[in-house]
Design brief:
Number of domains: 3
Strand content: 15-25%
CATH superfamily of the largest domain: Elongation factor Ts, dimerisation domain
CATH topology of the largest domain: Tetrahydropterin Synthase, Chain A
Helix content: 40-55%
Order of helices and strands: HHHEEHHHHEEHE
Number of strands: 5
Number of helices: 8
CATH architecture of the largest domain: 2-Layer Sandwich
CATH class of the largest domain: Alpha Beta
Distance between the termini: 60 Å
Radius of gyration: 21 Å
Strand order of the largest sheet: 1-2-5
């Protein structure tokens, strides 16, 4: 089948994938637009992990202000190109992430941003609680590990359950968007503002 530029352009608009990827997807699916979209999604999930080392020098600052006008958030969301920065799906992701910050009030972006002092303090608190409860010493460290995972889920944005789909972590939502769009996407930072 002849894959013309109109088809490639339409697929690029619908998927936000690169021109070469769109052409390949259309060739693999004999020009079937829906199958090409599905093909790109499957390929994208595979490639998402590989894109994390690419420079994300473009992007947006997304905002969300709660209906009460008393709390809001800003999220700096980066991508590789201004084409993707203008993409509605990318912008919606930014708004969803800002809404996540308002709803879940994370303190850190990721686990590696939690200082050693904070981690040690949390572990000491858990150790004391468990000792008072009479837990066996050999079990305490395993229990603490589980409690720390729960702690990270509460305070780290990337570890939190996504407010629009509790079955997914925020990091998984970002990975899915990388797969769909075909570019590296990074949450650079966020800020919660409250009256």
């Amino acid at each position: 089948m002849d894959i013309n530029t109109r088809l490639i352009s339409e697929l690029r608009k619908r998927s936000s994938a690169g021109i070469v990827d769109c052409k390949k997807a259309l060739m693999e699916t004999n020009g079937d637009m829906e199958k090409a979209l599905e093909y790109l999604r499957k390929q994208g999930l595979e490639k998402a992990g590989k894109k994390s080392d690419r420079v994300a020098g473009e992007g947006i600052v997304a905002t969300y202000v709660h209906a009460t006008q008393k709390v809001g958030a800003m999220v700096a969301l980066a991508c590789e190109t201004d084409f993707v920065a203008r993409n509605k799906d990318f912008q919606q992701l930014g708004r969803d992430l800002a809404m996540q910050v308002v709803a879940s009030r994370p303190l850190y972006l990721s686990r590696d941003q939690v200082s050693r002092e904070v981690v040690d303090k949390e572990k000491a608190i858990y150790r004391e609680q468990l000792s008072r409860e009479g837990k066996p010493q050999e079990m305490i460290e395993k229990i603490i590990e589980g409690k720390m995972d729960k702690y990270y889920e509460e305070v780290c944005l990337l570890e939190q359950s996504f407010i629009k789909d509790e079955d997914l972590k925020v990091r998984e939502v970002v990975a899915q968007k990388i797969a769909t769009i075909g570019e590296n996407i990074e949450i650079k930072r966020f800020s919660l503002l409250e009256i």
